[in-house]
Amino acid sequence: MGVETVTYNDIIDCINNPEVLLIDVRDPADIADTGCIPTSINIPLCKVQQELKQSRLAFLAKYQRTKPAYSQKLIFYCQFGELAQEAAEIASSSNLGFMNVSVYKAGFSEWKFKWNEFDDYVDPERLKQQERYRNF
């Protein structure tokens, strides 16, 4: 059970795909400063295991997204890929058992560089909505 690497174009393709869950593992303060990839949720690396073990109802209440099935595609990202790789290994471990796990190793730094309209794609309302469901 290996962890795949995805590209910028893969991320573009999956933004509006409800079958793919994009997970930003950076700290919330970093996201507040730089933004995030549309449709992603924030689960800081230190909470990945805890959050992916939550009940379906708790996950839905916190993230307003359905908890992923073990076969659902999960893509982890961070600023440069190192934290995302660690999160992917946690999710695909025998302890959690997610089977379709990928990493966007180029991370948010590449996304920000390649996305021409950076300021337009970050949805401040979505960030506010996500902030309401965090219990840090």
TrEMBL record:
Any matching Pfam family: Rhodanese
Ranges where the Rhodanese domain occurs: 16-120
Protein name, as recorded: Rhodanese domain-containing protein
InterPro entries linked: Rhodanese-like_dom (IPR001763), Rhodanese-like_dom_sf (IPR036873)
Xref: PROSITE patterns: RHODANESE_3
